[in-house]
C-alpha cells in the first residue's frame, strides 16, 4: 500500500523537555528536523515537574559534581551506570546555565546568581549533610523549561507536527532505523516520516497502573513502538510510587497531611500504622507506610466495595486548621474523592509516579542492544534508560536527565547525520505494512473487547499484582493475568470509526503501547527475586547477608525484556565511571 | 486515556462543525493529571449542553497554559480575562 513519505534529516517523537532540547541542538546545527507530538508542546507532561533541576553550581554553599554523582549512584541503589551518572552530573551546570541563557526565569539570589534549595537525597561531601542543589522557577520549573525551549525551537525553525501520533518504528532488513509511521489526528491519514536519525522522547507509561499521577497522555508510546520493533526494554520492574494518592484519581495528597496529624485507617477503622511502626506510626518513612498500606489491602482489610484502598483520616482535626493549613488538600479531596475531609476520611492508595526503566541507551543517547548501537535510533528522557536512575530516581534528577540526554542525543544525531549518505536510502516497507495492518485490524474488528474494559483490566492487574510492594505468589499470578489481558487487547474494538480527531481510535492505539509496558514490568518484576530501590518484595527481606533484601551476587545487573516470547536477558551494570574511581557498593540507608 | 466519550454533540453551528468539536475534545487532554480529570468530567457531562458562544469560550480557555488554567479552576488565583469567568465557573460546577 502506498503511503506518503515526508523526508527529514532528523525526526523526533515527543515534544516534552527531552524532545525539545534535542530538536534545538539539531535545528541550530542547520538540520531539517521534525518534531511529532500528540499535544501542543508546552502541554507535555514535563509541565507537571515542580521541584526543580539539580546542578552542582555551588551558588549558596560549596558543591561538586562528584558529590552529586555519589548521591545519584546511592539513590539508584547501585543499579545506575556510573559512566552515564558521571556524565550527567558533570554536564548539569552547563545545561542549566545554557537554559538560563535561553531565557529560563530561574529564581535568583540577591547577587543575581541562580537560587538553589535543598532537596531530598542531595548531599554535600559524599552523603554528609544536605546541600542546596535544586534550581527552580517558582513552582513552575517544568512549565518554564518547556516555554523557554519551545520559543527557542521556533526561532531555530524546528518543524512541529502537533496532534500527530507516531504508530511504529521503521527498520530496514539490517535493523537500521529509517523513521516512523505516524497518523495525523485531524484526518487519520497515515504517513511515513523518513529520516537519517530518529529520536524517541515520548515520556513514561505511568498509565499502566490504576493509580498514577501521570497525565492521560503518558501511555508509553515509544516503549510500545520499540518493543514491537524488536528492541528490548530495560529495568522495567522499577517504578517510583508515592504512598498517598486519591484512590481512583491518582492526585497526590502531600505527606504534610500526616505531619498535621492525619491517621491511616483500614476497613475496621483501625490505626494500622501502630502495628507496623510503633514509634513513628503514621509519620514513618514513605517505604514503610506504602508497604503497610499494601499489606492491609492484600490481607483483606482494604476499604470500599473493592477493598482496594485505605483511608486517610483528618476528621479529628479542628476544621479551622484544615481550612487554614490544608486548603489545597480539602479542595483535592472534595473534587477527586467526592469527600469533604472535615467530615469523612479520604480514600488513598500508593500511586505510581515515575518510570526508571526504558529503552536501553548509552550516555550519548544511542540505543544499544547486545553491546551494539542500533544505527539511526536514539532515546532520551523518561522513555530511555541510560541508566542514571537505576532502581530509584533522586528528586530533581528527572528534569536534569531531559536536558543532559536531550542535548547529548541531539549531538550524537548530528554526528551520525553528517557522516550518512546525502540521499536517504530506499524505504523498507515491511514495518510500514505491519503498522497499517495494525490500524486496519482495529478498524475491522468485530465482536471484540471494548478498549475501556481491557484497559481497566490491565490497570487493576498491575496495581494489585505489581504495585509498590510485591509478593511472590501475586507476581506469579500477575504474569498469567497480564497475558490474559494481552489476549483481550489483541481483539480490542472501537465503535466509532470516524476519521477526524477520533479519540477512541487514539486511545485504542495507546492501549496497544501500554500493554507492552505492562507485560515488561510484570515479567521483569516476577523474575527479580531481590529487593532493590523501588522494587521491594515481601520474600526478599532485610537480613544481615542481604541488607534491605538486596542481593548483589545474583542481581547486580540490568533486566532486558524482549517482546518476542517474553524472553528475559540481563546485562552487567557499568560500575566504571568515565574519569573517577568506582563508587563502591554499600548498603543504602538515609 | 480517560472515559471521555468519542461522540461529539451534534448541532447546527457555523464555526463549530463536527471536526472542531472533536478537536476541542482532544485538546481537553493536558499535561497535568488534575486538568485531565476535571476536563474529562466537564466534557462528558456538561459539554453537550453548551451553546455555541460557550463552546467558543471553552475553546479559548483551552489555549491557556496548563498551570494558569489549573490555578483558575482550583480558585488559587483569579482569571484576569472577565469573559472567561462564566465558563470557568461551569467547569468548577461540573466537579461537584
UniProtKB/TrEMBL annotation, chain A:
UniProt keyword terms in alphabetical order: Cell inner membrane, Cell membrane, Electron transport, FAD, Flavoprotein, Membrane, Oxidoreductase, Transport, Tricarboxylic acid cycle
Pathway assigned to this chain's UniProt record: Carbohydrate metabolism; tricarboxylic acid cycle; fumarate from succinate (bacterial route): step 1/1
Domain FAD-dependent oxidoreductase 2 FAD-binding stretches: 9-399
Compartments, record wording: Cell inner membrane
Binding site for FAD: 14-19, 37-52, 221, 382, 398-399
Gene Ontology terms for molecular function: electron transfer activity; flavin adenine dinucleotide binding; succinate dehydrogenase (quinone) activity
Cellular component, GO annotation: plasma membrane
Residues annotated with Tele-8alpha-FAD histidine modification: 45
Residues the record lists as binding substrate: 242, 254, 353, 393
Chemical reaction(s) catalysed: a quinone + succinate = fumarate + a quinol
PANTHER family: SUCCINATE DEHYDROGENASE 2 FLAVOPROTEIN SUBUNIT, SUCCINATE DEHYDROGENASE [UBIQUINONE] FLAVOPROTEIN SUBUNIT, MITOCHONDRIAL
Protein name: Succinate dehydrogenase flavoprotein subunit
Gene name tied to this protein: sdhA
Amino acid at each position: 500500500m502506498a503511503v506518503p513519505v515526508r523526508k527529514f534529516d532528523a525526526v523526533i517523537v515527543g515534544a516534552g523537555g527531552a524532545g525539545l532540547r534535542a530538536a534545538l541542538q539539531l535545528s541550530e546545527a542547520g538540520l531539517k528536523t521534525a518534531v511529532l507530538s500528540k499535544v501542543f508542546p508546552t502541554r507535555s507532561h514535563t509541565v507537571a515537574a515542580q521541584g526543580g533541576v539539580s546542578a552542582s553550581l555551588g551558588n549558596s554553599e560549596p558543591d561538586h559534581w562528584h558529590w552529586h554523582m555519589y548521591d545519584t549512584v546511592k539513590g539508584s541503589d547501585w543499579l545506575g551506570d556510573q559512566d552515564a551518572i558521571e556524565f550527567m552530573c558533570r554536564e548539569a551546570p552547563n545545561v542549566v546555565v545554557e537554559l538560563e541563557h535561553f531565557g529560563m526565569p530561574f529564581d535568583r539570589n540577591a547577587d543575581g546568581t541562580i537560587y538553589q534549595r535543598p532537596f531530598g537525597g542531595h548531599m554535600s561531601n559524599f552523603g554528609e549533610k544536605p546541600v542546596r542543589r535544586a534550581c527552580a522557577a517558582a513552582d513552575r520549573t517544568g512549565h518554564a523549561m518547556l516555554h523557554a525551549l519551545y520559543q527557542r525551537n521556533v526561532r531555530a525553525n524546528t518543524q512541529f507536527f502537533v496532534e500527530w501520533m507516531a504508530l511504529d518504528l521503521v527498520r530496514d532488513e539490517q535493523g537500521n532505523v529509517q523513521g516512523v509511521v505516524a497518523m495525523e489526528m485531524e484526518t487519520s491519514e497515515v504517513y511515513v516520516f523518513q529520516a537519517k536519525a530518529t529520536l524517541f522522547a515520548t515520556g513514561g507509561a505511568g498509565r499502566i497502573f490504576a493509580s498514577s499521577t501521570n497525565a492521560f497522555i503518558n501511555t508509553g508510546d515509544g516503549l510500545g513502538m520499540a518493543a514491537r520493533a524488536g528492541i528490548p526494554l530495560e529495568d522495567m520492574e522499577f517504578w517510583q510510587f508515592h504512598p498517598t494518592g486519591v484512590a481512583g484519581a491518582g492526585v497526590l495528597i502531600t505527606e504534610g497531611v500526616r505531619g498535621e496529624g492525619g491517621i491511616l485507617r483500614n476497613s475496621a477503622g483501625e490505626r494500622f500504622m501502630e502495628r507496623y511502626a510503633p514509634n513513628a506510626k503514621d509519620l514513618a518513612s514513605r517505604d514503610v507506610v506504602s508497604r503497610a498500606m499494601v499489606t492491609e489491602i492484600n490481607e483483606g482489610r482494604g476499604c470500599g466495595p473493592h477493598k482496594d484502598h485505605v483511608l486517610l483520616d483528618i476528621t479529628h482535626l479542628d476544621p479551622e486548621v484544615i481550612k487554614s493549613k490544608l486548603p489545597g488538600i480539602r479542595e483535592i479531596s472534595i473534587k477527586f474523592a467526592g469527600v469533604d475531609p472535615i467530615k469523612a476520611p479520604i480514600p488513598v492508595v500508593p500511586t505510581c509516579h515515575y518510570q526508571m526503566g526504558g529503552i536501553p541507551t548509552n550516555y550519548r543517547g544511542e540505543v544499544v542492544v547486545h553491546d551494539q548501537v542500533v544505527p539511526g535510533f536514539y532515546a532520551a528522557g523518561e522513555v530511555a534508560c541510560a541508566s542514571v536512575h537505576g532502581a530509584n530516581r533522586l528528586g530533581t534528577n528527572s528534569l536534569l536527565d531531559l536536558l543532559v540526554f536531550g542535548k547529548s542525543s541531539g549531538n550524537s544525531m548530528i554526528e551520525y547525520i553528517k557522516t550518512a549518505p546525502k540521499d536517504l536510502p530506499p524505504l523498507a516497507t515491511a514495518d510500514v505494512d505491519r503498522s497499517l495492518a495494525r490500524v486496519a485490524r482495529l478498524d475491522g474488528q468485530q465482536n471484540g473487547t471494548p478498549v475501556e474494559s481491557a484497559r481497566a483490566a490491565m490497570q487493576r492487574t498491575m496495581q494489585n499484582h505489581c504495585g509498590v510492594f510485591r509478593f511472590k505468589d501475586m507476581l506469579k499470578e500477575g504474569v498469567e493475568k497480564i497475558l490474559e489481558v494481552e489476549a483481550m487487547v489483541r481483539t480490542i474494538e472501537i465503535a466509532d470509526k470516524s476519521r477526524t480527531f477520533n479519540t477512541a481510535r487514539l486511545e485504542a492505539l495507546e492501549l496497544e503501547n501500554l500493554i507492552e509496558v505492562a507485560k515488561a514490568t510484570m515479567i521483569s518484576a516476577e523474575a527479580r527475586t531481590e529487593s532493590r530501590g523501588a522494587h521491594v518484595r515481601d520474600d526478599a527481606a532485610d537480613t544481615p547477608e542481604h541488607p534491605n533484601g538486596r542481593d548483589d551476587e545474583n542481581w547486580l545487573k540490568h533486566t532486558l525484556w524482549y517482546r518476542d516470547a517474553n524472553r528475559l536477558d540481563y546485562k552487567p551494570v557499568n560500575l566504571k565511571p568515565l574519569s573517577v574511581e568506582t563508587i563502591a557498593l554499600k548498603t543504602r540507608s538515609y | 486515556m480517560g472515559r471521555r466519550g468519542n461522540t461529539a454533540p451534534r448541532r447546527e453551528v457555523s464555526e463549530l462543525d463536527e471536526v472542531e468539536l472533536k478537536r476541542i475534545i482532544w485538546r481537553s487532554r493536558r499535561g497535568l493529571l488534575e486538568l485531565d480529570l476535571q476536563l474529562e468530567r466537564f466534557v462528558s457531562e456538561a459539554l453537550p449542553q453548551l451553546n455555541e458562544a460557550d463552546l467558543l469560550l471553552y475553546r479559548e480557555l483551552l489555549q491557556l497554559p496548563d498551570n494558569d488554567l489549573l490555578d483558575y479552576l482550583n480558585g488559587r488565583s483569579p482569571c484576569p480575562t472577565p469573559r472567561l469567568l462564566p465558563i470557568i465557573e461551569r467547569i468548577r460546577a461540573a466537579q461537584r
